[in-house]
Amino acid sequence: MSRAALTAALIGLFWSSSAWACPVCGGGGLNREAFIDTALVLTFLPLILMGGGVYWLFKTYIASDDQAALAARERGRQEAAAELP
């Protein structure tokens, strides 16, 4: 390891108090809680939206399948009525 890299590593190790100035790094109680809450929302919102889309597609598919079955049943009734003397 070069002398400059070692010096930079030691400075970074012992002078890390500047990291507390960043709210994302845990600079304060309210900031940290807001960061965690935002991370949770941004994690679960896309999953909820995708799940809602899949549910909607499934519900639409079931509804179209029900309509096709209803139309086939109605066609069968009409054919049966046409065969009656």
The helix-strand sequence is HH
Oligomer: single chain
Largest sheet: none
Total strand segments: 0
What is the C-alpha radius of gyration, as a whole number of Å? Answer: 32 Å
Q: What structural class do the secondary elements suggest? A: mainly alpha
Q: For the residues shown, what is the average pLDDT?
A: 77
The helix content is over 70%
- The 3D shape can be described as rod-shaped
How much of the polypeptide forms β-strand, as a percent range?
under 5%
Number of helices in the DSSP assignment: 2
Number of domains: 1
Distance between the termini: 101 Å
Uncertain stretches of 5 or more adjacent residues: none
Describe this structure in words.
This protein has 85 residues and is mainly alpha-helical. The longest helix has 55 residues, at 29-83. The protein has 2 helices and no strands. The chain is rod-shaped.
Task: Describe the structure in brief.
The chain is built from 2 helices and no strands. It has helices at 3-14, 29-83. It is rod-shaped and about 105 Å long.
Index terms:
mainly alpha
Layout of SSEs?
Layout: H1 3-14, H2 29-83
